């Protein structure tokens, strides 16, 4: 499970806070569902980081190792 879920359930058992249990359960249900934004976020962050790294290394616009030609 996820850290916020563990924390919410621990707070529930220590302080008997129904609010903490509700928030923890809602968090778990949302992120465990099949249509959450988790995977699109991961893909977008990965592509953004790749583009940033290529830009900072000077590999942008045709200066890639994939375009190597024997001279």
Account of the protein in words:
With 71 residues, this protein is mainly alpha-helical. The protein has helices at residues 3-15, 18-32, 38-57. Helix 1 runs antiparallel to helix 2 (18-32). The longest helix is centred in the C-terminal third of the chain and has 20 residues, at 38-57.
What would you say about this model in short?
By secondary structure, this protein is mainly alpha-helical. The protein is built from three helices and no strands.
Number of strands: 0
Mean pLDDT: 82
**What's the tally of helices?**
3
Low-pLDDT stretches are none
What percent of residues adopt helix (DSSP H or I)?
55-70%
Oligomer: single chain
Q: What's the Cα radius of gyration? A: 22 Å
The helix-strand sequence is HHH
Structural class, by secondary structure, is mainly alpha
Beta content comes to under 5%
Name the shape in a single word.
elongated
State the major sheet: none
Task: Give the N-terminus to C-terminus distance in angstroms.
Answer: 55 Å
Keywords, separated by commas or semicolons:
single chain; elongated; mainly alpha; 71 residues
How are the SSEs placed, and which strands pair?
Blueprint: H1 3-15, H2 18-32, H3 38-57
Helix pairs in contact: 1-2
């Amino acid at each position: 499970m996820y850290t916020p879920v563990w924390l919410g359930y621990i707070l529930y058992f220590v302080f008997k806070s129904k609010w903490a249990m509700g928030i923890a359960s809602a968090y778990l249900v949302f992120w465990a569902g099949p249509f959450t934004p988790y995977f699109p976020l991961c893909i977008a962050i990965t592509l953004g980081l790749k583009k940033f790294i290529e830009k900072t290394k000077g590999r942008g616009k045709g200066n890639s190792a994939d375009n190597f030609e024997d001279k």
